[in-house]
Amino acid sequence: MNFSSLKKNLKKDFSSHKKISIALLGDSSTQLLHTALRGLGYEYEVNLEIFEADYDQVDTLVLNRSSELYQKVFDFIIIFQSTPKIKKNYYKLPEDKQRIDFATNHLNKVCAYYESIKCYNSSSKIIYFNFQELDDNLFGHFANKTNISFRYQVRKINLGLMDLGQKCSDLFILDLASLLSSYGQSFITDPKIFATTELLFSLDFLPIVSKHLLDIIFSIIGRFNKCLILDLDNTLWGGVIGDDGIENIQIGQLGIGKIFTEIQMWTKELKQRGVILAVCSKNEENIAKAPFENHPEMILRLEDIALFVANWHNKAQNIQFIQSTLNIGLDSMVFIDDNPVEREMVKIHLPAVTVPDLPVDPAEYLPYLSSLNLFETASYSENDSIRTQQYKEEANRVIFEKTFINEDDFLRNLEMSSDVGTFSTYNIPRIAQLTQRSNQFNLRTIRYTEDEIKQIASSKIHHTLSFTLKDKFGDHGLISSIILKEVEEKKQAKALFIDTWVMSCRVLKRGMEQFILNQIVTLAKQNGYSTILGEYLPTKKNALVQDLYKNLGMIQYGSHWILNISDYQEKTTFIFKN
């Protein structure tokens, strides 16, 4: 998309798209970034309602409680402060001592921004641009050895922002410095235009930086890619395994084989980060698996692949099988194939799947795929590194289920057990991640950060529950979290409102919903509550649970579902509490 086409999108109808409120603040002109961001939102089916602050009013708006920034609650606050502006401030400092402290003072100001926003607008997420390096070459390469050089101070700020981002759960860094290294200074900024208009970004770069902003926003609201589906021949290795044989495919450290080795290394790192890997190949299965099992220079092995599909069916059909087996949305899948015909078939039949158009030259595959930023994430936990193993185990469960005619017999033979606990320091990162990532089994789709979960865990009016699930095939880990809030009912009676009920879709149809409700009722009884209230807020993705409360025996009154504890009959499940 170019800037002109994004601008034309502003005339289109956004009314059916999901609304996301944004405040855009900058120390240089942001009008065209506003236009590009909102226009690109239309392409992604979101209605970005953007408040654009007046020119160079960051301090005035963020640090003043009575400013218009705090007259509305924004989902996201984007702060863009440019390198040319901070360079001017740096040059105004007369003494070396002040210049040495420049980065530290700037980071303290960013920290003050964060604290002010979280104090007055606690639910907002902040996206802060880091800084491109504009080299004044006053010291040449010696700038790396002296802390009074501007280059040194900019790099210190960028490093400090990374540390700050780790400490502040609602602060996300848009890596402008990295984009500079990818696209080059001349592409990002037109010095002539900046000199006359203070528009830092070129028209060609505006769609790119807007796309990266949306990548971050979507990852936070739970809309991101979870699964990478891979073709094999001329995608993971050079050559055709069925024709060339295992000894002649190109992989390793010689010639073009190095290119495919690097692709496999990138892919394996994605798997380590929690991206699910699957294979979709037109091939005989035993032939397709041979390199994974026997080639000494393969980086990827069968244990890295959650689901391996190799047959002669069309790939759109096989991807649908992968989707149904893994039980994730098609819109969270990326399919990589060197064959343009296969790519086009998947695009036509499965338009929700992301299908990059690979370059013709394999040497350009990895730079191109990296530039797309296909797997943005807003969180990472230890559980992510074992996700592929969990999905492999789930595939085995699906196969095991097919050996039973009676569903109860299947569930009974799974040998399921659950640890039931409350929110703790250990599991808070995973719980926050569940609220951020769960879309289908999410009754109200309220997203919480780690800091917010910590506050809830220590709140006197909240009760929390966490659930793991283990069976004969493996350990699902922490798969569900419940946030219950005490509310007043009529005649001063108190009830428990189910603020949040999220669960991994990997454990659907295991009786976990019934088991969880049993535990909620037990907690309510122990704490003297007589009523449980539930609410379902529909989204495009959570229709799966629209009848959950009805199916669990709760009665609807207006927009809420009610369960009287005295009438409750414990649900039958085949899950044992540890």
Structure, explained:
There is one protein chain. This protein is an alpha/beta fold. It folds into 3 domains: 3-220, 3-Layer(aba) Sandwich (Rossmann fold); 227-371, Rossmann fold (3-Layer(aba) Sandwich), CATH 3.40.50; 405-577, Gcn5-related N-acetyltransferase (GNAT) (Aminopeptidase). The protein contains 23 helices and 18 strands. Helix 6 runs parallel beside helix 7 and helix 20 crosses helix 21. It is globular and about 75 Å long. The model has no long low-confidence stretch (mean pLDDT 92).
List keywords for this structure.
Rossmann fold, alpha/beta, Aminopeptidase, 5-stranded parallel beta sheet, 3 domains, 23 helices
Estimated structural class: alpha/beta
Give the integer mean of the pLDDT values.
92
* Strand ordering within the main sheet: 11-12-13-14-15-17-16
Spans of at least 5 consecutive residues with low confidence:
none
CATH class annotation of the largest domain: Alpha Beta
Write down the Rg: 26 Å
Strand coverage percent: 15-25%
CATH superfamily of the largest domain: SGNH hydrolase
